[in-house]
């Protein structure tokens, strides 16, 4: 079964746009769980433009499903935040400062030694580690030798390609998924997955353990309601 982890960054974006606490991020996370989400994902960025560091402490107190914190481990503040909260999973993303959103995976060959150290730091604290990578079997194989538990395939290229030629778009992901299986790595995926492209992806990717979805899901919820939307996403994964 593929788990759905709802990324609530965009709820924090909306809250921050006015100050105050509307919408209430913690309540939204609890409601997502009540509506069927099997995990909650947040991606605190150094400028705290959506998720604030304090949000992570607040969410950790209440989340009963799987808590996944994504972010740039080259920021010491991020490492300290994750170690202080001990989520079920940390997803390491090689973001540059000021990026609008994540736009590439790790070069696991070039950063092998650095990744070995940081993966060990989180694993010693009992936190499952996932590395955000492009769908390239070489990057997946080199991820395995860092000691990471999982990789998360960066699905932006799939989402864009799906509209033109879905068979061609999914092919590199299926190959990367096979490489992950052969290397003994668990497999996650995320970025720009939506109600149109999710089912085809999950049907063609062997061993997909978890997808994290935020932007499209929250946009859909504006029209369809949060409970209904989460149920619709879950049906794509059934
Ligand atoms: C790691 C990843 O794929 C991103 O989608 C991220 O979690 C979203 O971050 P933003 O909400 O800041 O665009
Ligand atoms: N890891 C991907 C994620 O959490 C959500 O990405 P998106 O659905 O907001 O593009």
Automatic annotation (TrEMBL):
Pathway: Cofactor biosynthesis; pyridoxine 5'-phosphate biosynthesis; pyridoxine 5'-phosphate from D-erythrose 4-phosphate: step 5/5. One of its GO terms (cellular component) is cytosol. The active site is at residues 43, 70, 191. Belongs to the PNP synthase family. This is Pyridoxine 5'-phosphate synthase. It comes from Pararcticibacter amylolyticus. 3-amino-2-oxopropyl phosphate binds at residues 7, 18, 192, 214-215. Its main location: cytoplasm. It comes from the Bacteria. It is found in: Cytoplasm. 1-deoxy-D-xylulose 5-phosphate binds at residues 45, 50, 101. PANTHER family: PYRIDOXINE 5'-PHOSPHATE SYNTHASE (PTHR30456). Gene3D superfamilies: Aldolase class I. The keyword Transferase applies. Homooctamer; tetramer of dimers. Keywords: Cytoplasm, Pyridoxine biosynthesis, Transferase. It holds the Pfam family PdxJ. It catalyses: 3-amino-2-oxopropyl phosphate + 1-deoxy-D-xylulose 5-phosphate = pyridoxine 5'-phosphate + phosphate + 2 H2O + H(+). The keyword Kinase does not apply. The record marks 152 as: Transition state stabilizer. GO terms for biological process: pyridoxine biosynthetic process. One of its GO terms (molecular function) is pyridoxine 5'-phosphate synthase activity. It is an enzyme of class 2 (transferase). InterPro entries: Aldolase_TIM, PyrdxlP_synth_PdxJ, Pyridoxine-5'_phos_synth. Its EC number is 2.6.99.2. Catalyzes the complicated ring closure reaction between the two acyclic compounds 1-deoxy-D-xylulose-5-phosphate (DXP) and 3-amino-2-oxopropyl phosphate (1-amino-acetone-3-phosphate or AAP) to form pyridoxine 5'-phosphate (PNP) and inorganic phosphate.
